[in-house]
Amino acid sequence: MAKEEKKTQVENTPKGKVSYPLTKINFILMGICLLLIIIGFWLMTGSANVGDTFNKDIFESSRVTTGPVIAFLGFVLMAFAIIYRKKDKNDEDNA
After folding, report:
1. Model pTM?
2. In terms of residue numbers, what domain contains 38?
3. Residue 44 lies in a domain
4. Torsion, Cα of 33, 78, 66, 69 (10° steps)
């Protein structure tokens, strides 16, 4: 039964053209999202408390809010980048 399903999938694709689940646009979007995640984590870095002195820089807005928000957006958009599928003219005709 599995061989029959596989046969029909191969017959439906044009000759010499293999359909992959992720396309070039998916990888570009995933790269942009990875860059957003790296920027978010980079914004969260900084110096820590040293010895007995208190470092007020640990409560900067870029470390507490901006960095985490950008990293979170990168993770959420990464899911979209993986799921995204460009509509083909063939898909519109069949619908």
Report:
1. 0.70
2. 21-85
3. yes
4. 180
